[in-house]
Specification:
- The chain has 71 residues and is an alpha+beta fold.
- It has one domain (2-70).
- The protein has 2 helices and 4 strands, in the order E-H-E-H-E-E.
- The chain has helices at 11-20, 44-48; strands spanning 2-4, 27-31, 52-57, 63-70.
- It has a 4-stranded mixed β-sheet with strand order 1-2-4-3, with no helix packed on it.
- The longest helix has 10 residues, at 11-20.
- The mean pLDDT is 88.
């Protein structure tokens, strides 16, 4: 399951639905788009829920964190 900009308003509901439609052993991938925002750290709620974070710099100069979790 791959999502772009859809997680964060209702973590419980959003992640529940993502898990529901993902086959066992599949991956949940959450990608954030490019912007100039300098994030200081990954999303703590996703980390608490077991996601692994990957940091990179966007083409706009911002710091972006993307996430993955095997279900």
């Amino acid at each position: 399951m791959l999502s772009f900009h859809v997680v964060g308003d209702d973590y419980e509901g959003e992640l529940h639905e993502m898990r529901r439609v993902t086959k066992p052993g599949g991956w949940l991938i959450i990608c954030n788009g490019d912007d100039e925002f300098q994030r200081a750290h990954p999303d703590g709620e996703l980390i608490r829920r077991g996601f692994e974070a990957f940091r990179h710099e966007s083409s706009s100069g911002g710091i972006i964190y993307n996430y993955r979790l095997r279900v």
